[in-house]
Amino acid sequence: LVFFLMTGKDRIIFATKEDHDTPSSAELVADDPDDPYEEQGLILPNGDINWNCPCLGGMASGPCGEQFKSAFSCFHYSTEEIKGSDCVDQFRAMQECMQKYPDLYPQEDEEEEKEKSSKDLEANTMEASVAKEEKGSS
Protein backbone atom coordinates (compact mmCIF):
# COMPACT_ATOMS: atom_id res chain seq x y z
CA LEU A 1 0.00 0.00 0.00
CA VAL A 2 1.54 3.31 -1.10
CA PHE A 3 -0.20 6.65 -1.02
CA PHE A 4 0.88 10.26 -1.33
CA LEU A 5 -0.06 13.17 0.87
CA MET A 6 0.64 16.70 -0.33
CA THR A 7 1.22 19.32 2.37
CA GLY A 8 2.25 22.63 0.92
CA LYS A 9 5.46 22.09 -1.04
CA ASP A 10 6.22 18.78 0.69
CA ARG A 11 5.09 15.33 -0.39
CA ILE A 12 4.81 12.57 2.20
CA ILE A 13 4.96 9.02 0.86
CA PHE A 14 3.89 6.01 2.89
CA ALA A 15 5.24 2.64 1.79
CA THR A 16 5.06 -0.93 3.07
CA LYS A 17 8.01 -3.26 3.73
CA GLU A 18 7.22 -5.03 0.45
CA ASP A 19 7.56 -1.73 -1.40
CA HIS A 20 11.08 -1.37 -0.05
CA ASP A 21 11.98 -4.97 -0.98
CA THR A 22 11.08 -4.42 -4.65
CA PRO A 23 13.78 -2.81 -6.86
CA SER A 24 12.98 0.73 -7.90
CA SER A 25 11.61 1.37 -11.36
CA ALA A 26 12.39 5.08 -11.21
CA GLU A 27 14.12 6.55 -14.24
CA LEU A 28 16.66 9.33 -13.93
CA VAL A 29 15.91 12.34 -16.08
CA ALA A 30 18.70 14.65 -17.22
CA ASP A 31 18.66 18.06 -15.59
CA ASP A 32 17.12 20.80 -17.67
CA PRO A 33 19.54 23.75 -17.65
CA ASP A 34 16.64 26.08 -18.50
CA ASP A 35 14.61 25.01 -15.46
CA PRO A 36 14.67 28.11 -13.22
CA TYR A 37 13.93 25.98 -10.16
CA GLU A 38 16.98 23.76 -10.41
CA GLU A 39 19.67 24.51 -7.86
CA GLN A 40 21.38 27.25 -9.84
CA GLY A 41 22.30 29.35 -6.86
CA LEU A 42 20.63 32.34 -5.33
CA ILE A 43 20.50 34.46 -8.47
CA LEU A 44 19.23 32.96 -11.72
CA PRO A 45 21.01 33.69 -15.02
CA ASN A 46 18.34 36.29 -15.86
CA GLY A 47 19.07 38.19 -12.61
CA ASP A 48 15.92 37.07 -10.77
CA ILE A 49 16.04 35.64 -7.26
CA ASN A 50 15.82 31.84 -7.08
CA TRP A 51 13.32 31.47 -4.23
CA ASN A 52 13.84 27.68 -4.31
CA CYS A 53 17.57 27.92 -3.62
CA PRO A 54 18.45 25.71 -0.62
CA CYS A 55 20.76 28.54 0.48
CA LEU A 56 17.68 30.45 1.69
CA GLY A 57 16.92 27.72 4.20
CA GLY A 58 13.20 27.75 3.43
CA MET A 59 12.81 31.38 4.49
CA ALA A 60 10.79 32.17 1.35
CA SER A 61 8.02 29.86 2.52
CA GLY A 62 6.23 29.60 5.84
CA PRO A 63 4.20 32.16 7.73
CA CYS A 64 6.66 35.00 7.05
CA GLY A 65 7.64 33.97 3.52
CA GLU A 66 5.95 36.92 1.85
CA GLN A 67 7.58 39.41 4.22
CA PHE A 68 10.97 37.76 3.64
CA LYS A 69 10.51 37.88 -0.14
CA SER A 70 9.50 41.53 0.03
CA ALA A 71 12.51 42.51 2.15
CA PHE A 72 15.01 40.40 0.24
CA SER A 73 13.69 41.57 -3.15
CA CYS A 74 13.90 45.17 -2.04
CA PHE A 75 17.51 44.67 -0.94
CA HIS A 76 18.47 42.74 -4.09
CA TYR A 77 17.05 45.34 -6.46
CA SER A 78 18.04 48.36 -4.35
CA THR A 79 19.96 51.03 -6.24
CA GLU A 80 20.57 53.26 -3.24
CA GLU A 81 24.16 54.32 -2.47
CA ILE A 82 23.91 52.36 0.77
CA LYS A 83 22.34 49.21 -0.66
CA GLY A 84 19.09 48.34 1.07
CA SER A 85 18.76 51.61 2.94
CA ASP A 86 15.39 52.03 1.23
CA CYS A 87 14.15 48.69 2.61
CA VAL A 88 13.84 49.44 6.31
CA ASP A 89 10.05 49.12 6.34
CA GLN A 90 10.13 45.72 4.62
CA PHE A 91 12.78 44.36 7.00
CA ARG A 92 10.85 45.71 9.98
CA ALA A 93 7.68 43.94 8.77
CA MET A 94 9.66 40.71 8.33
CA GLN A 95 11.13 40.97 11.83
CA GLU A 96 7.73 41.72 13.38
CA CYS A 97 6.28 38.68 11.65
CA MET A 98 9.14 36.44 12.81
CA GLN A 99 8.69 37.57 16.40
CA LYS A 100 5.15 36.15 16.28
CA TYR A 101 6.60 32.66 15.58
CA PRO A 102 9.54 32.20 17.99
CA ASP A 103 9.46 28.41 17.58
CA LEU A 104 10.01 28.72 13.82
CA TYR A 105 12.34 31.71 13.94
CA PRO A 106 14.34 31.53 17.18
CA GLN A 107 16.13 34.73 18.11
CA GLU A 108 18.76 35.09 20.79
CA ASP A 109 18.28 38.19 22.84
CA GLU A 110 21.24 40.26 24.00
CA GLU A 111 21.37 38.64 27.47
CA GLU A 112 21.54 35.12 26.02
CA GLU A 113 24.22 36.30 23.60
CA LYS A 114 26.27 37.81 26.44
CA GLU A 115 25.93 34.67 28.57
CA LYS A 116 26.97 32.48 25.65
CA SER A 117 29.99 34.69 24.92
CA SER A 118 31.13 34.67 28.54
CA LYS A 119 30.73 30.86 28.78
CA ASP A 120 32.73 30.43 25.57
CA LEU A 121 35.43 32.72 26.96
CA GLU A 122 35.53 30.75 30.24
CA ALA A 123 35.78 27.44 28.37
CA ASN A 124 38.60 28.73 26.15
CA THR A 125 40.46 30.10 29.18
CA MET A 126 40.11 26.77 31.00
CA GLU A 127 41.33 24.82 27.96
CA ALA A 128 44.33 27.11 27.59
CA SER A 129 45.11 26.76 31.30
CA VAL A 130 44.91 22.94 31.17
CA ALA A 131 47.04 22.83 28.03
CA LYS A 132 49.65 25.06 29.69
CA GLU A 133 49.75 22.81 32.81
CA GLU A 134 50.09 19.67 30.68
CA LYS A 135 52.90 21.23 28.66
CA GLY A 136 54.70 22.33 31.82
CA SER A 137 54.47 18.89 33.46
CA SER A 138 56.06 16.94 30.60
Automatic annotation (TrEMBL):
Name of the molecule in the record: MIA40 protein
Keyword Disulfide bond: yes
Region spans: Disordered: 102-138
Stretches that traverse the bilayer: none
A GO BP entry: mitochondrial respiratory chain complex assembly
Keyword Protein transport: yes
Stretches assigned to the CHCH domain: 64-100
InterPro entries: CHCH, CHCHD4
Cellular component, GO annotation: mitochondrial intermembrane space
Compartments, record wording: Mitochondrion intermembrane space
Keywords: Disulfide bond, Mitochondrion, Oxidoreductase, Protein transport, Redox-active center, Translocation, Transport
Pfam families tied to this protein: CHCH
PROSITE patterns, per database record: CHCH
Molecular function in Gene Ontology: protein-disulfide reductase activity
Gene source species: Nothocercus nigrocapillus
